[in-house]
Design goal:
Elements lengths: L9 E5 L2 H4 L27 H5 L3 H8 L16 H15 L3 E5 L2 H4 L10 H16 L3 E7 L5 H7 L6 H16 L6 E5 L9 H5 L11 H26 L4 E7 L2 E4 L4 H23 L4 H10 L9 H7 L4 E5 L3 E4 L8 E3 L4 E3 L5 E2 L5 E2 L1 H15 L3 E5 L16 H19 L5 E7 L19 E3 L11 E3 L1 H11 L8
Parallel strand pairs: 1-2, 1-14, 2-3, 3-4, 4-5, 5-7, 6-8, 7-13, 13-14
Antiparallel strand pairs: 9-10, 11-12, 15-16
Length: 489
Amino acid sequence: MNKKFPDGFLWGGATAANQYEGGYNQGGKGWSVSDCVKQKFDVDVTNYEAHNFTTSKEIEEALANPDDVRNYPKRRGSDFYNRYKEDIALFAEMGFKVFRLSIAWSRIFPNGDDEKPNEEGLQFYDNVFDELQKYNIEPLVTMSHYEPPLNLVLKYDCWYSRKTIDFFVKYVEVICERYKDKVKYWLTFNEVDSMIRHPYTTGGLVKDRFEGKNFEEVIFQAMHHQFVASAIATKICHEIIPGSQVGCMLTKMTYYPYTCKPEDVLESQQRMRATYCYSDTQVFGEYPAYLLARFKNDGINIVKHPEDDNVMKENPVDFVSFSYYMSSCVAADETGLSTTAGNTITAIKNPYLESSDWGWQIDPIGLRISLVDLYDRYRKPLFIVENGLGAKDELVDGEVNDQYHIDYYKEHFKAMYDAITIDGVDLLGYTSWACIDLVSESTKQMSKRYGFIYVDANDWGEGTFDRYRKKSFYWYKDVIKSNGETIFE
């Protein structure tokens, strides 16, 4: 019997508007937080605060240079805004069943608090969804992916303010009503847990605006508002779009104890809980006891409205989606241990794993472990919506020989197959990050390339932006066509 993935398995690819769409000053779009994130190529990626905390001064500088697309890479992305037909045709050529994208909130409500939505922005996504429909590609849409409207930051302190729930709910009502016949699968917030690591892009939180306040408490208050907003969004989606499926989205951090010392095992368990607490809240509709204990022990006070607990409890998510790029080792005592860069973290290096060009450790078995852990914990369908390898591609005579991408995906797909067939995991689908080259979130580089499609642009936005099929493009096309059978040949 030939090995294949289950019938109806959703193969595809993933992107995000803030890294891919571009067109920051077209179609009536307003400023988003990501439009004001400057490249920091000269700053060590392990300098956590420099890369993940944006200051008021940096925002002022960004707004003072509204035409600068050289130093603000997310303003240009990969120019999907003007090339969406070309790109979707390429995705169709690969045989995509699903395409994950996000709607830029500030393209629909340019200031976030506008009275009426921007029709030109709404029409753009109508055009995109119509183009996907033409090729029978199912859209998987993230409502908010690192792009709150900047005005909400400057005027309300964004997700720290209760008012932002109302602004978001209005936005969700508009997009659900507008696209109710075109979009079935939705995600509310991308990597909702990431606010603790990069509070500006996820929550619109600027640390220097909260002087005198416990910034950790500020972050958790903003996160509470997102949890409530996500629950309301789930309710709205279910009411407006019968049969719709709404998922949460988690950064899957998989931690191994560096040794079998009980102290290291305990540290690993604590780190895992520090990730799971966010998906626990969205799946079970309530804060887990261990997170409430942390609030109490750390003196963190969350202001709730009386109805919040009921809203969260009555509107849990339908499925759990997540990103997985790497695993990490942890130890109670890190003295003398080598560290390496990771997905917005710095981790202890695992001597049994290889690393990418950017230091991220490659661990296909870790993906199987992650799938099993999540499914055992939640008993809800899972969806891998980000997984991939950032690498330095070389375009030679219009071709890219990226065998390293193929090797990476092949081993991760085998791990997925084992999780489904041996471990009994219910896996809905897989969207690679990113199916086409775009601006990397962690480094803001184009040269950190994930895609099956090469985009001719360098880190400064110089190039034709023409698209080229890589070697992996044809390989993934065969994988999808055979429903995974070719990975075992």
